[in-house]
Design a protein that fits this description.
It contains seven helices and five strands. With about 180 residues, the protein is of the alpha/beta class. It has a domain of about 120 residues: Rossmann fold. The protein has a five-stranded parallel beta sheet, with helices on both faces. The structure holds 4'-phosphopantetheine. 4'-phosphopantetheine binds next to β1 and α4.
């Protein structure tokens, strides 16, 4: 991006679990940046469906085709983590106008915390604009198909996990 320096970008998120929308942003990002670190936030307060280790495993498998993409996890402030990783860019995907307000707030806060780190937004392909991890979990738990919306491995893991008793499913879905 500048004077031949290698540009490292962080793509942060919950990825609970990764969807084909995330994967589309990762593929686009991998072509723009020299190194792309997909990083999972450790945030147990969100009561995730999958542990960080499980999410990392699914991500690692899914990004295998992209040679410059790696998987990591972080705790604390994203802006500080980006600096520790020597990343100049935070990558975020935008699906629709509804994403914009939250993303704008985060980007401006991160800029205030670490002015040297820029947030770059990429548009996921329009075919992915309605996909979210939350909806995918809901559809699977109610017996619907999410084929084409998540990598096949993720679909399998979701089916295994959401075959839990109904009461537990409800608990997982409200998070
Ligand atoms: O996939 P998500 O849940 O939309 O990702 C949100 C994420 C992980 C990017 C955001 O919650 C985050 O950066 N959390 C780290 C804590 C932090 O830096 N908070 C201030 C951000 S403005």
């Amino acid at each position: 991006m500048t004077h031949g320096a290698r540009v490292v970008a962080i793509y942060p998120g919950s990825f609970d679990p990764i969807t084909n929308g995330h994967l589309d942003v990762i593929e686009r990002g991998s072509k723009l940046f020299d190194r792309l670190i997909v990083s999972i936030l450790h945030n147990e307060s969100k009561s995730p469906l999958f542990s960080v280790l499980e999410r990392a495993e699914m991500l690692r498998e899914s990004v295998r085709p992209f040679g410059n993409v790696e998987i990591d996890s972080f705790q604390g402030l994203l802006a500080d983590y980006a600096l520790r990783k020597n990343a100049r860019v935070i990558l975020r995907g935008i699906r629709a106008v509804s994403d914009y307000e939250y993303e704008l707030q985060m980007a401006l806060m991160n800029r205030r915390l670490q002015p040297q780190v820029e947030t770059v937004f990429l548009l996921a392909g329009e075919a992915f604009s309605f996909i979210s991890s939350k909806l995918v979990k809901e559809v699977i738990s109610l017996g619907g198909s999410v084929a084409g919306l998540v990598p096949p491995l993720v679909e399998k893991r979701l089916r295994e996990r959401l075959r839990a008793p109904e009461s537990l499913q409800q608990e997982l879905l409200t998070t």
